[in-house]
Write a structure and sequence with these properties.
Strand order of the largest sheet: 7-6-15-14-13-8-12-11-9-10
Helix content: 40-55%
CATH topology of the largest domain: Rossmann fold
Largest sheet: 10 strands, mixed
Oligomer: single chain
Shape: elongated
């Protein structure tokens, strides 16, 4: 088999890339055709140059015997030199070059001495010149033909990156993309070796690290496609173009950005189920959140429960009025989690009663179809529809740290068939912050720039092996992301994308313009939420503006001292601590203190405390919440723990998934009966 040189192999791939780059620089089909034709033009320029040289040579040397001798010797020297110089190339290329040079110099010698139109010279030029140029064009085309590529024909460039004897088939040039099928040598390499070689291949082709990825053939361990995107088409910021399906269903895809080939970045929430959004500060995670919420809030059959107790609307405040429930405190977030858990069985029971195996677009409409009736007589029930529920927890790391790393596990595992999507947004996801059970129950992820050591928690291993590398961005390319979700072709998982840029004006317009199209949350879900959260849900308010978080740096000295205990007002914080004195080693905490009231008084006091918490909307409590109350009533902490257990046995409290936390069971509102 013939083997090509290393330069030939590099040229084969690089010419594909150069042809593709042309499509990214110009304007439309004309530019594309020009750049595709460029590699084939040099042979034709050579034919034209030989003809012009023959005409000029005849004008000067038509009657010169010495010129004839010189031209003949030059012709022989060039033909022999072409053969000698070509010894580093394949035998076919060497012979082709020598024959072409010999024919061209022979015709030039005859044309200079006898004239380009003497005898058959003009006919030979008109027939032989195009034939020679076409032979080189055909050779260039056949270079990428898999039938013309022998064993190890691409060894030059690929051998450098550890893929020796790999065969490359015909390359396909598209808009901002080159796709080259490959076949690894049987028994010597697998697709895993291709994944390891991608960074080196990117360096050999002089393209960005994220520009080279591969698509393994699912039916073969040694075949697949190399994909190269040499031009970064995501550099240009694209503003949110407006709702993609205004008034449509949440079951239709949300358009949240563009891939690097210009195709749309789509997210279908009911199919994606639960979503993890991850990105370091400045990576564009908030922009992605705004794009998703902007699309969601233009759909008719979805309601949003939003927790934003860390930034309190600093980034998402414009969408607060469009949400059914907004939690801006840790206590509200905790009870919102419990409300979502309570809504799951209530919603699945409704769907089951109406013969839906899972939530679908029809479940949100009035139930006029007898096939989806909760009646046993076979007639339509006419029940109101059930809206899809999106439970969004922004900056969830704070919630996980305050509660438990598996606080979302129940929701993630059971909400799939209840028409609920869970979105957990955080800067850094790791096994220290979120439990492996919860992470395994989040099938979808929208990953922006992250630290390299966190990429494995955000994206599946096979996506990283295919060339995805969010660690290369960090926060240097805001908005750049990878999306892994159901309903998306797997070959797009490793394709970089960029979310739209959004602004408060657009969000305010969406909140206002589509208010009458968004259906209210159904009675089943609201009843479950009220049964758990009580007044925290029934008396909920939707802030019309972000709640500005007060930073300590923004407070003056007088404001800072407002929270200081009067006994400590004269303490100078810069003063050195005094030396230890006798008695300082005695423990201040962990000691039994406070009185123990009689059982009847204890029950009354504790019932009053629970009623006080319920009235304030604090529906999830634990021993630490009773600290001030114990001090006020001179009661001990261990006494409170015992009362919590008694209240749980009596049905006033229910345990949560978090150790030491209890949910208050709301007391029913008193009803008036007619005399």
């Amino acid at each position: 088999m013939m083997r090509r040189s290393e330069n030939d192999d590099q040229q084969a791939l690089l010419q594909l890339l150069e042809a593709q780059r042309g499509t990214a620089d110009g304007g439309g089909m004309g530019s594309y055709l020009v750049h595709r034709a460029k590699p084939h033009v040099p042979p034709w320029l050579g034919v034209g140059g030989i003809g012009l040289a023959g005409v000029l040579g005849h004008l000067r040397w038509a009657d010169s015997t010495a010129a004839g001798v010189g031209l003949t010797l030059t012709s022989v020297a060039l033909s022999g030199g072409a053969y000698v110089i070509g010894k580093t190339t394949s035998k076919q290329r060497r012979l082709h070059s020598a024959i072409t040079t010999g024919m061209a110099t022979a015709w030039l010698t005859a044309a200079c001495l006898a004239g380009p139109t003497a005898g058959p010279l003009d006919d030979l030029y008109l027939m032989g010149g195009p034939a020679a140029a076409l032979s080189w064009n055909i050779r260039m085309l056949m270079r990428h033909n898999p039938d013309a590529a022998g064993d190890g024909s691409d060894a030059g460039l690929l051998e450098k990156v550890g893929l020796a004897r790999t065969k490359l088939a015909a390359g396909k040039v598209e808009a901002n993309r080159v796709t080259v099928p490959y076949s690894l040598p049987a028994g010597e390499a697998t697709n895993e070796d291709v994944a390891k070689a991608l960074p080196k291949l990117a360096g050999a082709l002089d393209v960005p690290p994220n520009a080279v990825r591969y698509r393994p053939d699912p039916d073969s361990a040694r075949r697949g496609e190399l994909v190269v995107v040499p031009e970064d088409m995501l550099k240009q910021v694209t503003w949110y173009p407006g709702p993609s399906k205004p008034g449509g269903s949440i079951a239709e895809p949300l358009v949240i950005g563009l891939y690097d080939d210009g195709s749309l970045l789509l997210l279908t929430l009911p199919q994606a189920i639960h979503l993890l959004i991850m990105g370091v500060t400045g990576a564009g995670k908030t922009e992605g959140a705004l794009d998703i919420l902007a699309e969601v809030l233009t759909r008719r059959d979805v309601a949003v429960w939003l927790s934003d107790h860390v930034k309190k609307g600093q980034d998402l405040g414009e969408v607060f009025p469009a949400c059914d429930w907004v939690a801006t405190t840790p206590a509200d977030t905790e009870i919102m989690i419990e409300a979502v858990k309570a809504a799951i069985p209530a919603r699945t029971a409704w769907l089951g009663a109406h013969r839906y195996r899972a939530w679908c677009e029809e479940a949100a409409a009035v139930q006029t179809d007898p096939a989806h009736s909760c009646r046993t007589d076979g007639t339509a029930c006419g029940c109101e529809g059930m809206a899809y529920l999106l439970a969004w927890f922004e900056e969830a790391a704070n919630t996980l740290a305050r509660l438990d790393d598996d606080v979302f596990t129940t929701i993630a595992q059971e909400a799939r068939s209840a028409g609920i999507s869970l979105v957990i947004s955080m800067q850094r996801a790791s096994g220290y912050q979120i439990s492996t059970d919860t992470r395994a129950s989040l099938p979808s992820s929208l990953c922006f720039g992250v630290d390299e050591k966190d990429a494995g928690f955000a994206l599946p291993a096979e996506v990283l092996d295919a060339g995805a590398n969010p660690g290369a961005w960090k926060n240097r390319k805001p908005g750049y992301c990878y999306l892994v979700a159901a309903a998306i072709e797997e070959e797009l998982y490793a394709n970089p994308a960029r979310t739209f840029r959004n602004d408060p004006v657009t969000l305010e317009w969406i909140t206002r313009e589509f208010a009458d199209q968004r259906m209210p949350l159904d009675a089943v879900t609201t009843g479950a939420a009220a049964g758990v959260a009580g007044r925290a849900y029934t008396d909920r308010t939707r802030p019309d503006a972000p709640i500005d978080p007060v930073e300590e740096d923004d407070m003056d000295d007088e404001e800072l001292r407002c929270g200081v205990d009067p006994e400590d007002e004269d303490i100078d914080p810069e003063e050195e601590l005094p030396e230890p004195e006798p008695g300082d080693e005695q423990p201040l905490f962990g000691q039994e203190r406070g009185r123990k009231p009689a059982p009847q008084e204890a029950r009354r006091l504790f019932a009053a405390a629970l009623a006080e918490f319920e009235a304030a909307g604090r529906m999830v409590v634990g021993p630490k919440d009773f600290t001030d109350w114990c001090d006020r009533n001179n009661l001990s902490r261990p006494w409170v723990s015992e009362r919590l257990k008694e209240a749980a046995l009596g049905g006033r409290l229910e345990p949560t998934d978090t150790t030491g936390r209890w949910r208050i069971v709301p007391t029913p509102e008193p009803t008036l009966t007619a005399a």
